[in-house]
Amino acid sequence: DVKVTQSSRYLVKRTGEKVFLECVQDMDHENMFWYRQDPGLGLRLIYFSYDVKMKEKGDIPEGYSVSREKKERFSLILESASTNQTSMYLCASRRRFTGELFFGEGSRLTVL
Amino acid sequence: DAKTTQPPSMDCAEGRAANLPCNHSTISGNEYVYWYRQIHSQGPQYIIHGLKNNETNEMASLIITEDRKSSTLILPHATLRDTAVYYCIVRVVSNQGGKLIFGQGTELSVKP
Question: Which residues of chain A have pLDDT under 70?
């Protein structure tokens, strides 16, 4: 079965802390994505990566960076967490040609 | 980017067919229609996708109108476990790869 694994299901961090959210997929997909989901705003794309060491900004990249050193792993980094980054973060990878996205279970981050 | 319009909520009786509509009147010729659902506190799950022909899999059927300006997702025998938010999205292709833009979705409540 297809699997996208996010490292932490729940995190609580303090304002100003550096936060790493890790995502691993086992399907050899080239494209990977980070979204955040907030009530009333739906899913919003933060960054995506179409291959190793490649990245492209999504709709709301401010305050975030990403790293894709290996094909299976896509990391989202909050350099200095702020309270407005409290959210559910969802990682996804995409099957080539047919384009389906496979999502992880999500990481719920609370910044105090 | 082609946008989609869905009703915010729908109810369906258990065992009956659930028909979820989606309007995508600005869709272009090479854009696919994808459907996902999200059960509470989980990541979205891929259901089905299509270009112009109707499609069916073990989860659902997708009916796309001839002019491709709208589509309907059909869950033939809805169960309580089908209660979820259903997203209709259109694939946008830009640069390499492409990104899927999620709208607000339809919250389907299946009632006993």
Answer: 1-2
